[in-house]
């Protein structure tokens, strides 16, 4: 069993290195410090460092180069959250929504629910042991018979026994979790970024490999902790995000709305 402390530690290291890449402290084409240097820098074991690096590789931020080390391959400036902490005295965000760019009815297709072993990244987010069983819920959204979104959610199996019985059916995940398992969403954290379409997304969404996509990473909580993690890919030529904010605003740094 992986201890929670260790899992949180490699996630912290992963997040710190990712931020350094985003801010170009580690620029594209440069090498990360060696494994030994990272163990000293973070006062962590080699195993913990390797897990953090594995997550960065999954994100497509670094690659292992034989005879050289770990090379940064994508700075991904867009992955840094916009510094909302620089804003003060918002009245409120008056509107935050996603909306299709063309008229039509959005249809969520039947879900495919199966059980998979938790990979490093999923295990870290859900705070479960690597390799433990989690439910994977895959579904697609279509508009006017065109698939424009692919969504994959992960839920710990012990929280939702028997969830696979819903495979092949249409259901709203959060409603299902509340009505059948008493899991009510209390908080959601979501990151919106951009990415290039991979092989799977290209086939499902009908776009060329490498085409830009809107990417959503969501962590949902109930009163007992994390209940779901999801990754979604949307076609930006079909779907957009609109945010409306009302001031007054005060600025504590150089960042500003323009």
UniProtKB/TrEMBL annotation:
Keyword Kinase: no
PROSITE patterns attached to this UniProt entry: HTH_GNTR
InterPro entries on file: Bact_HTH_transcr_reg, Chorismate_lyase_/UTRA_dom_sf, Tscrpt_reg_HTH_GntR, UTRA, WH-like_DNA-bd_sf, WH_DNA-bd_sf
Any GO BP: negative regulation of DNA-templated transcription
Entry keywords, A to Z: DNA-binding, Transcription, Transcription regulation
MF (Gene Ontology): DNA binding; DNA-binding transcription factor activity
Alphabetical list of SMART domains matching this protein: HTH_GNTR (SM00345), UTRA (SM00866)
SUPFAM superfamilies (alphabetical): Chorismate lyase-like (SSF64288), Winged helix' DNA-binding domain (SSF46785)
Protein's name in the database: GntR family transcriptional regulator
Organism of origin: Hungatella hathewayi
């Amino acid at each position: 069993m992986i201890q929670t402390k260790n899992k949180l530690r490699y996630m912290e290291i992963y997040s710190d290195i990712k931020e350094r890449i985003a801010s170009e402290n580690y620029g594209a084409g440069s090498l990360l410090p060696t494994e030994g240097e990272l163990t000293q820098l973070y006062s962590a074991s080699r195993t913990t460092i390797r897990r953090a690096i594995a997550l960065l590789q999954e994100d497509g931020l670094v690659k292992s180069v034989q005879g050289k080390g770990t090379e940064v391959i994508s700075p991904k400036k867009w992955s840094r959250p916009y510094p909302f902490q620089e804003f003060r005295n918002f009245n409120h965000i008056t509107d935050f929504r996603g909306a299709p760019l063309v008229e039509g009815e959005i249809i969520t297709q039947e879900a495919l629910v199966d059980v998979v072993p938790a990979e490093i990244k999923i295990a870290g987010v859900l705070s479960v042991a690597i390799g433990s069983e989690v439910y994977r819920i895959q579904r697609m959204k279509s508009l006017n018979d065109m698939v424009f979104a692919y969504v994959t959610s992960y839920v710990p199996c012990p929280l939702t026994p028997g969830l696979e019985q819903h495979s092949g059916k249409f259901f709203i995940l959060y409603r299902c979790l509340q009505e059948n398992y008493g899991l009510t969403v209390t908080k959601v954290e979501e990151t919106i970024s951009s990415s290039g379409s991979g092989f799977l997304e290209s086939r499902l969404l009908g776009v060329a490999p490498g085409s830009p996509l809107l990417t959503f990473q969501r962590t949902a909580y109930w009163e007992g902790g994390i209940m779901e993690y999801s990754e979604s890919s949307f076609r930006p030529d079909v779907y957009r995000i609109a945010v409306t904010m009302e001031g007054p605003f005060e600025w504590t740094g150089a960042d500003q709305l323009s």
